[in-house]
Amino acid sequence: MIPLTAYIDGIGLLGPGFADWPSAAAILSGHARYVAATTVLPPPLSLPPPERRRTGAVVKLALAVGFEATTRAGIERSSLATVFSSSGGDGFNCHEICQVLASSDRQLSPTRFHNSVHNVAAGYWSIAAGATAAASVLCAYDASFGAGLVEALTQVAVERTPLLLLAYDTQYPEPLNAKRPIADAFGVALVLTPDARDATLAKLTAMFTDGTAERMSEPHLEAMRASIPAARSLPLLRQLARRERGRVVLDYLRHTRLALEVEPCS
Amino acid sequence: MSERAALMTPLRLTCFTAVSAVGRGLAATLDALEQQRSGLAPCSFETVDVDTHVGEVPGVDATVLPEALRGFNCRNNRLAQLTLTQDGFIDAVAASAKQWGPRRIGVFLGTSTSGMLETEFAYRGRDPKTGALPREFNYAATHNSFSVADFVLQALHLEGPAAVMCTACSSSAKVFASAQRMISAGMIDAAVVGGVDTLCLTTLYGFQSLQLTSRLPCRPFDAARDGISIGEAAAFVLLERAPPRPDAEAIMLLGTGESSDAYHMSSPHPEGRGARASIQQALTAANLAPGDIDYINLHGTATVSNDSAEDLAITSVFGTATPCSSTKGATGHALGAAGALEAVICALAIQQGFMPGGLRDTEVDPKLHLHYLRENRRGGIDRVLSNSFGFGGANCSLIFGRPV
Fold it and tell me: Which domain holds residue A156?
């Protein structure tokens, strides 16, 4: 295959023990110690109050990392195409719907139903950011980060358009959690552009590979990588945090992994 | 913002098939469209007590998955299996895999609810003491949206990139754009695209809660339209890099357009702003003018606001002469499978030289101005546009036609 290339101009990150990209980068590059903590989701202040009240964890998480990445990149949000990727929708909302449908009164609330769609974060992002370009919303189970990255890099390469990739997962409550355990909420957003800009952090080149996905050496971080699909991005984030040229292999589908060349630009 | 790199390189629809409430496979689908027969009937699905009509596919539950893939057993994957076995689709994919290699064929499918019905059943069977879901409930192979792509990858022995698109009612239209880009970028040479969505309680009770379901069979573009009829369907298309001089009879994907309304989660932009943008992008990608389009297969869901927004979008681009219809009065709204189902209907229309009319008894809303076909029309049609607009404001327009 022909390698896909894009430039990373901004990063947003939120996860257990990760409050934002700069503090996470200090941990991932070995300059600060990782302290385990539950993910704290900020309220989505970018939405008008009626919409804000209706949003669940997925929307809060996606909007937080999306705003962080675009603010750091200093790029006009409304002009960006978007790729959202997540293994599941809003787990709490899904549980509530299933409970109601298994009860004697099956009447759902309209808000529950409209928050149940997998593209709920994309809908709210487009409203909050005034983003009218294409929005893709993907799911590939444990391969969701890889699938989102492949779709995003392809769009940047073919459409020659700047794009925001958002990959995120939140946990299910019981009893679904026992069937699909996701430890905590984790979200990452990358602003990707077809050409280098002043804000560019690194050049990224991707290819499919048969190689083995890299692991994290720190046990907490490896547990996070292995248990949250969006955190399969951690080896790439570590390479970006180190600001060193290098190659990382990320987990993707059963039959294919992704090899990424990272080349710092500033 | 930089310009789109180039016009789209057309791709060939090497093989396609669909199963919906109007029939199994192309011949049955064509026959129903030619007879203007509807597959909608009063809802008697499972234990559902919603007063509405649905487009249920008969025989889904009698379908048996291949032995090695039994773990994927759920209504959605049974419908996928039933559809894969129509119209020589499996053989066409096998031939394509022989030509390009299984790693050079991607799988990109749309769904909205995947195997959600299994989870709904599992919640009825929770352990009374612990609340646990039944042991046999398999989240990854049924509930998760990716389940259908994983099933199709394995059923067709493919090893290319794969993903499921979940932009509600535009899901299985947008996969054509994803596949086209991956082929254009040289990552793959062919792709199985399509959509699979099946009836479940979440959508039936959910659309009822939004007051978007009609009690009667849905009546797109009718003055008295009052909501959708939910349908179920699966449709698959084998898209391939086209030879330099495709056969004159070939059916091609000529253009794709995608946009977001950035307006509201469950209502379209009232002037069809996003819809207009996706239509115009598709025309630009195909290097066509509005007058080059012979027929438009509308999103046409039959809600008051959807049809009027789409009418404004269409008439602002095409004027009022281009023949249009919605086939949802026949099939129901297949949600995440609607885009692919209607892509297959468009391909059939080009192949057979006919424009499917909507419902014969449509009393077209005088407030809507596009040219709505109530009767089938015969005659050569070379290029058609298909619209799909999703919940959350995710729009997609596709243009199919004969080789340029």
Answer: 10-196
Place of tokens 């699979």: B196
CATH of the domain at A66: 3.40.47.10
Nearest CA in chain A to B201: A101
A62 in a domain, yes or no? yes
3-state secondary structure A7-59: EEEEEEEEECCECCHHHHHHHHCCCCCCCCCCCCCCCCCCCCHHHHHHCCHHH
**H or E segment at B383?**
strand B383-390
Partner-chain residue, chosen from A120, A139, A140, that has the shortest CB–CB distance to B392:
A120
Q: Which of B103, B181, B262 is closest, CB to CB, to A126? A: B262
Cβ neighbours for B32, distance < 8 A, ≥ 6 positions apart: B22, B23, B39, B330
Nearest by CB to A108, which of B186, B187, B205?
B205
Identify any residues that bridge with A85 across adjacent strands, giving them in sequence order. A138, A167
pTM of the model: 0.98
Which regions of chain A are under pLDDT 50? none
More confident site: B310 or B6? B310
Residue B139 DSSP code? I
Residue A52, classified by CB atoms within 10 Å of its CB into exposed (0-12), middle (13-18) or buried (19+), is middle
Identify the residue whose tokens are 């008051």.
Answer: B304
Q: Is the pLDDT of residue B1 over 70?
A: no
Distances (CA, A) of B375 to A100, A120, B176, B340: 43, 38, 29, 23
Rounded distance between C-alpha atoms, residue B77 and residue B377, angstroms = 35
pLDDT band at B2 (very low <50, low <70, confident <90, very high): very low
Q: What are the structural domains of chain B?
A: 11-401 (3.40.47.10)
Look at residue A33 and tell me if it is in a domain.
yes
B128-157: pLDDT as tens digits: 999 999 999 999 999 999 999 999 999 999
Q: How confident is the model at residue B4 (pLDDT cuts 50, 70, 90)?
A: very low
Provide the pLDDT for residue B284.
97
Distances in Å between the Cα of A4 and the Cα atoms of B134, B185, B308 are 44, 8, 41
The total number of structural domains that make up chain A: 1
pLDDT value at B215 more than 90: yes
pLDDT at B5 over 60: no
Catalytic pick from B169, B200, B324, B346?
A: B169
The CA distance from A8 to the nearest CA of chain B, in Å, is 16
Reported confidence tier of residue B107, pLDDT bands at 50, 70, 90: very high
CA-based nearest distance A135→chain B, Å: 6
B132/A195 Cβ within 8 A: no
What is the arithmetic mean of pLDDT over B356-367?
95
Domain assignment of residue A141, yes or no? yes
Is A53 a member of any domain?
A: yes
